[in-house]
Amino acid sequence: MASASLQFFAFILALFGVFGDIAATLLPNWKVNADVGSNIITAITQMQGLWMDCTWYSTGMFSCTLKYSILSLPVYIQAARTTMVLSCILSAFGICITTVGMKCTRLGGDTDSKNNASFAGGICFILAGIFGLVPTCWYTREIITNFLDQTIPESSKHEPGGAVYTGFISAGFLLIAGVIFCSSCFKRQQGAWIYPPKQHHFPSTEQESNAGYSLKDYV
Q1: pTM, to two decimals
Q2: How far apart are CA 187 and CA 194, in angstroms?
Q3: Fold type of domain 4-27+74-194
Q4: Signal peptide location in the record (predicted)?
């Protein structure tokens, strides 16, 4: 019962991770213009994402421009696009697989099949968390490097936006959910290895017959 509750908790974390992963992939605020120097008071807020660049004016108007050219983008943005999409796909597969393998559901067949499905779903969550964590770390590193570069003007410096923090949190949720699903199945298998089923040995009928009759009395 405790293992089923733990799996359900991990499934809820995975759901939050999937929704956050999709939101982080689509949001345009991976980096925003930094309010430093002469940019402390500005009438516009510029945001850049993986798929579009947006500008928010103080009058309330909002305009976005899609990034159609892939080859003109920096390498870290191209890598972030690929890995974030892979993270969304793997996390969606993990949700489908763990739904079958969870102990609180009636799908998946016998216990061994459900354990294998839960373990496979946990692996999908761990891979999705890794694929979501790598681009956010790389993207944040590029932002910090450009921010500390003295040759870049203050008007071109940016700070990490809300999508980066959403990506970090979602990757953490997916990693935790994957570890819980994998460890719950591993504990059950480990218990079977430590305490193997007892085997009962029964003497053969021939030994019983020999034990019942003594051959010394016969010539």
Answers
A1: 0.78
A2: 10
A3: Butyryl-CoA Dehydrogenase, subunit A; domain 3 (1.20.140)
A4: 1-24
